[in-house]
Amino acid sequence: MTKKLVFGHANPDTDAIVAAMAYSYLLNQTGQETEAVALGTPNEETQFALRHFDATAPRVITAAKPEVNSVILVDHNEAQQSVSDVAEVEISAIVDHHKFNLTTATPLNIRAEALGATSSILLKMFNENKVEIPANLAGLMLSAIISDTLLLKSPTTTEFDKIAVQTLAEIADVDYETYGLEMLKAGTNLATKSELD
Amino acid sequence: MTKKLVFGHANPDTDAIVAAMAYSYLLNQTGQETEAVALGTPNEETQFALRHFDATAPRVITAAKPEVNSVILVDHNEAQQSVSDVAEVEISAIVDHHKFNLTTATPLNIRAEALGATSSILLKMFNENKVEIPANLAGLMLSAIISDTLLLKSPTTTEFDKIAVQTLAEIADVDYETYGLEMLKAGTNLATKSELD
Ligand SMILES: [Mn+2]
Ligand SMILES: [Mn+2]
Ligand SMILES: [Mn+2]
Ligand SMILES: [Mn+2]
């Protein structure tokens, strides 16, 4: 089996970065060969989460075709949000929680659910595949759900997102409300400014 | 919760008819209110299968909007293969094994896998939801996989389709090779002609 790249959308938010890391980890645990990459550098919120949970940012790519024949999209499905040459490679799988605007050349695996974050869908997939989530990855997935749902306050928040946050906070051993507020603050210009003040 | 219609593509084949019946049954068992319908009358092969397993064909619709606000597509995802007014209703879920050409207005549930038939994906979903498959529905799902994979001979046939056929044949209590050949013959003009001869 040849290596596949897993990545979220351009101008990545925390869910885009983390869902790639989480899905790549899950796929590798179940016998596939994948690498999580990103279509841009992490924003300040994501950098805060990566630092907090001792993780390094995925390598940034600008094209897929020079490296692989097949890619896996997370947290997006539209070509215009994807890697520049997405039309030249096979899309072999997608995990996403957005509306769809997708054309593929071949059949593929898609897991889409109307949940608050791609990372919530991925928690389900870890459970279904009975793969344990390492504590630092759980902390990152928690961060992604907090980011997309604004600490479970956004109208896109579902009952499952609430359960997911509690489950992941337990694995990561953090108080999600305290941590979540700090993380969201790290992502605002306000926070940057007050740090400078 | 309001009723949703579940249907396969226009000019329905056996998988399009049966996958609608199977997914509707599964959804209703898990607390949703759905009705399996069809975008055309069953072909001769499908009629053979319905007769053999004592089932009646789903009612045919020509439009969705007069009846429901929300629909569920099986065995297709492209608007041009779907109900005439698909653009005027919400697509709330899709189960399919084809390449994609899909635009939606809202997030939705999608389960797509590159298996030989939509009915193979549905067998997985019954198992995941721990819902038992009635013997006659199992016989129909078996018929759909045999139809799409030409008795497990088509290049689209996967290892899981083979397992699915054996599992479903056991539940339906039929010899799938003998039954499958009869069913495929019922769908050919040759068979129609020799019956007339
Ligand atoms: Mn995102
Ligand atoms: Mn997201
Ligand atoms: Mn079909
Ligand atoms: Mn089919």
TrEMBL record, chains A, B:
UniProt superkingdom: Bacteria
EC numbers: 3.6.1.1
Molecular function (Gene Ontology), one example: inorganic diphosphate phosphatase activity
Signal peptide range in chain numbering: none
Keyword annotations: Hydrolase, Manganese, Metal-binding
Cofactors, names only: Mn(2+)
Coiled coil location: none
Protein name stated in the entry: Manganese-dependent inorganic pyrophosphatase
Lineage: Bacteria, Bacillati, Bacillota, Bacilli, Lactobacillales
Complete-protein stretch covered: 1 to 197 of 306
